[in-house]
Amino acid sequence: MKEISILFSGEAGTGIKTIESLIAPLLKNEGYNFYISKEIMSRVRGGNNVTQLRVSSNKVTSMTERNNYVIVLSKNSLYRLNDRLQEDTILIGPKAFIEDSYSEKYKTIYIEFAEEARKVGNIMFSNIVIIGFLGGVLGLTFSNVEKLISKKFAKKGDDIVNKNIEAYEKGENLGKESNLKVEIEKNELVKRTGVSTGTEAMAVGSLAGGCNLAASYPMAPSTEIFMTLIDYSKNFEIAIEQAEDEIAAINMVLGGWYAGGRAMTTTSGGGFALMCEGISMSGIGELPAVVHLAQRPGPGTGLPTRTEQGDLNLVLYSGHGDFNRVILAPGSLEEGIVLGNKAFNIADKYQIPVFLLSDFHYVNQSYNIDDIDFSNMQIENHFVKSDKDYKRYKLTEDGISPRAIPSFGEGYVCVDSDEHDETGHITEEFSVRIEQNEKRNKKLNNYKDIEPVVKGDSDFETLIIGWGSTWGAINEAFEKENKKGVAYAHFTQVFPLPKSTKELLEKAKKIISIENNFTGQFADLIKKEIGINIENRVLRADGLPFTLEQIQKVIKEL
Question: DSSP assignment of 451-489, as one string?
């Protein structure tokens, strides 16, 4: 067997997150590739949350429709999974949680995880029993498990550590007795990889960019990035501020850059809408800014804990007036780190807002990644020491004025949100307005694009394009369905469109755009910018990401 897929389904508060946090490093240390994706209801307690775990001999990066096992953690956990169950899917869980209508249709193994946990001393050990069950099925090395449990629960004392190990052993015995043992090919190289989530990738990318100030107001699904930066601040020099609202947060970011820091904020669509005046201030004040926006389905509150790529237009047209911006959208976890570094350097060099677009699916997925070479990620500072004749908005050939920091030099660093002259003082002279407007809007004339990554047949006739988090499903589908005459272009820089875009798209006889939104916002942007109309659009806007099978079907039907 090359892989298995396991669904965990239960109410919020049943401990699925604990299972995820432990099983991921255990699988990696065993030499298994894994992929974890989540579907969460907007509930603190109750509802129904679903996590999919794929364990594979090959690298996996997407959600799949096929599920070998479903571990049922609470009542009413199956009614939403009818389209995810196959004839040979096996249901596993307490008898009280699996309705007769399902046990009559699917093979069912009744296991009272809570009862086994009570034998250890407390129902709270149920999650460890479940991990033990999986360990028994997958044949995980007990010494690796013992080390991880000891490390995770060390602060709670030896008694808790020993009880967790005992709970694991009880679950392991159940797994071995179930006759479900699977043998998936292991890869020693996987043991050298790291375990990461989209949340960690975005936070580490910010550190790689030299972030030393993070100001945000909590809003799902961006909050975990902010919380991760708070954890990192214990070991890195990062000032952290939970602002009173998003308006304050973006203004703190602008103030941070003005004072010589490298600042960012993280938010979601509704919070970003409040930041738009500050974004415009970044434009006219020529103050760098890095904004991470974790998209979720709108309009309004929409589906606050689901996924969508629906905020491209919001970011593209945010802020009143005309000014340059760059929009980046990572697909892989590795790209989240690399683009985080680039975002800060671009913002610093060109004195513009740079946006990092992810989404719920991206920040909440997890898989094993290769080591990142941080030696290639330099922190580039472009500020200057001012002299007594310093002009903050000096007219230059490339449109980039020398940016000084207050008290670093003799000059006066004047910044204003009104139109201003070269010194930064307010003006209503029309000729000065024209000069400053032209200066601001030619900054990116010499900008070096981050080119799309193209894979597949170099002599393609059909080109599939995607951006951001659709990479996971499209990339894996291409690995499995390597079809002649078809190529895939993955865009991480979605604005400005890379200069090679027109030539690349004109080479294709047929173009298909795959996006997690209702209208095809990136395809619309391509039509607006380079005049190529993409009629073939594969769109999903129900709150879920694309599955591997959906993309495979698209490729096969070509």
Answer: PPEEEE-TT-SEEEEEEGGGHHHHHHHHHH---TTEEEE
Helix (H, G, I), strand (E, B) or coil at 540: coil
Strand ranges (E), 362-480: 366-369, 383-386, 403-409, 453-456, 462-467
Chain mean position to CA 8: 21
Residues 6+ apart with CB under 8 A from 134: 6, 23, 140, 171, 175
Strands (E), 333-379: 353-359, 366-369
The pair of structure tokens assigned to 263 is 């600042």
Tell me how far apart the alpha carbons of residues 492 and 521 are, in angstroms, rounded to a whole number.
15
Q: Say if residue 25 is preceded by a cis peptide, omega within 30 of 0.
A: no
Determine the Cα–Cα distance for residues 287 and 270; give it in Å rounded to an integer.
23
Residue 284 tokens, joined: 């006219």
Identify the three-state secondary structure at position 345.
helix
The Cα 80–Cα 257 span in angstroms is 47
CA 414/CA 233 separation, integer angstroms: 31
Handedness of CA 427, 431, 434, 440 (dihedral sign): negative
pLDDT tens, residue by residue, 66-100: 999 999 999 989 999 999 999 999 999 999 999 99
The torsion angles phi and psi of 341, rounded to 5 degrees, stand at -60, -45
Beginning with the edge strand found earlier in the chain, give each strand of the sheet holding 213-216 in spatial order. 239-242, 213-216, 263-267, 289-295, 353-359, 326-328, 493-495
| Cα–Cα distance measured from residue 289 to residue 279, given in angstroms and rounded to the nearest whole number | 8
C-alpha to C-alpha distance for 225 and 211, rounded to whole angstroms: 13
Contacts of 463 (CB under 8 A, 6+ apart): 486, 487, 488, 489, 504, 505, 507, 508, 510, 511, 512
Instruction: Specify whether the backbone of 274 is left (phi greater than 0), alpha (psi in -120 to 50) or beta.
Output: alpha
Q: Which long-range contacts (CB under 8 A, 24 or more apart) does 110-117 make?
A: 111/174, 111/178, 113/171, 116/167, 116/170, 116/171, 116/174, 117/167
User: pLDDT tens for residues 430-443?
Assistant: 999 999 999 999 99
Structural domains in the chain plus CATH codes? 3-190 (3.40.920.10), 196-372 (3.40.50.970), 383-446 (no CATH), 453-557 (3.40.50.920)
Kindly state the tokens that stand for 442: 């030619």
pTM of model > 0.70: yes
Nearest to 358 by CA among 276, 440, 294: 294
Q: How confident is the model at residue 14 (pLDDT cuts 50, 70, 90)?
A: confident
For residue 46, the surrounding DSSP H or E stretch is: strand 46-56
